[in-house]
Amino acid sequence: MNIKVAIITVSDRSSRGERADLSGPEIKKWAESHAYSVTAETVVPDELEAIKNELVRLSDAGTDLVVTTGGTGFAPRDVTPEATRAVIEREAPGFAEAMRFNSLKITPHAMLSRAVSGIRKKTLIINLPGSPKAVRENLAFIEKAIPHAVDLLNSQVTDCGSSS
């Protein structure tokens, strides 16, 4: 299945060119390892309107999956979850719940994640933490559900039940 993936790195320092974006490339590597098409990669500052604008632009362009990295913690400028909630039409809490649940097995700091996931039109939007290690771990926790979610959003699957 060819899933169109867009990546948004949320980082003040990376957006100013003061620090290399290491998490966005991790998402790209993951997407390419699943034969998904990376249609956009962008870096924005930790600013509500900038994040919202990119989420809207990319989801309204017909992207299947928008993955954000960064801005999900407790710092005053961490507003990625608020930006995501402002643009989604329906929540998809299972992704964030699965990431927090499994991450708690690794670190107690996982309970500090405010990441959310949701749907805008036919696009699934998932917030990931900002570190490359956390990106790899969290994608591994949720990757098996993504193709089915995208199929459902694109009306490729009409029956979620099984006969077994």
Structure, described:
This protein has 164 residues and is of the alpha/beta class. It has one domain (4-153): Molybdenum Cofactor Biosythetic Enzyme, Chain A (3-Layer(aba) Sandwich), CATH 3.40.980. It is built from 7 helices and 6 strands. It has helices at residues 12-15, 23-33, 48-60, 80-87, 93-103, 132-142, 146-153; strands at 4-10, 37-44, 65-69, 90-91, 117-120, 123-128. A hairpin with a 2-residue loop joins strand 5 (117-120) and strand 6. Helix 3 (48-60) packs across helix 4 (80-87). The longest helix has 13 residues, at 48-60.
Radius of gyration: 15 Å
Instruction: Determine the structural class based on helices, strands and strand pairing.
Output: alpha/beta
Q: Are there runs of 5+ residues with pLDDT below 50, and where?
A: none
How many strand elements? 6
CATH topology heading: Molybdenum Cofactor Biosythetic Enzyme, Chain A
Strand order of the largest sheet: 2-1-3-6-5-4
Tally of separate helices: 7
How would you describe the shape? globular
* Number of domains as seen in the coordinates: 1
Name of the CATH first level:
Alpha Beta
Question: Which architecture would the CATH scheme give at its second level?
Answer: 3-Layer(aba) Sandwich
Q: Note the run of SSEs as H and E.
A: EHHEHEHEHEEHH
How would you summarize this macromolecular structure in one to three sentences?
The chain is of the alpha/beta class and 164 residues long. The protein is 40% helix and 20% strand.
Structural features:
single chain, 164 residues, alpha/beta, Molybdenum Cofactor Biosythetic Enzyme, Chain A, six-stranded mixed beta sheet, 7 helices, 40% helix, globular
